[in-house]
Design a protein that fits this description.
Distance between the termini: 62 Å
Oligomer: single chain
Strand order of the largest sheet: 1-2
Number of strands: 2
């Protein structure tokens, strides 16, 4: 089965798929006899989409920071393991 991507993440990663701001803004609802005010729904969708856009931006920034810290840790571990061990003290404390 081919992986389908949504929001930059593959399906089946164990995390629920994130709604995109575009999906929120363009969602259509069927008309009802005693329905909601369409302008109010659109205002709410716009507000929600703006919040989602901010959260997606924070997630991307945190993922980049996490990658940077992981690389820094690996570099530090590599440098640390490259140094030879200090000579022992000959069995004395």
């Amino acid at each position: 089965m081919a992986q389908v991507y949504r929001g930059g993440q593959p399906y089946g990663t164990g995390r629920p798929a994130l709604l995109t701001p575009h999906e929120v803004r363009t969602r259509e609802f069927p008309p009802r006899r005693r329905g909601l005010d369409p302008a109010e729904v659109r205002r709410f969708q716009s507000r929600l989409a703006d919040e989602l856009a901010g959260l997606h931006q924070q997630i991307r920034a945190l993922a980049q920071e996490n990658d940077r810290l992981g690389r820094a840790l690996r570099d530090w571990q590599t440098r640390r393991s490259a140094h030879p061990c200090r000579p022992g003290n000959g069995g004395r404390w």
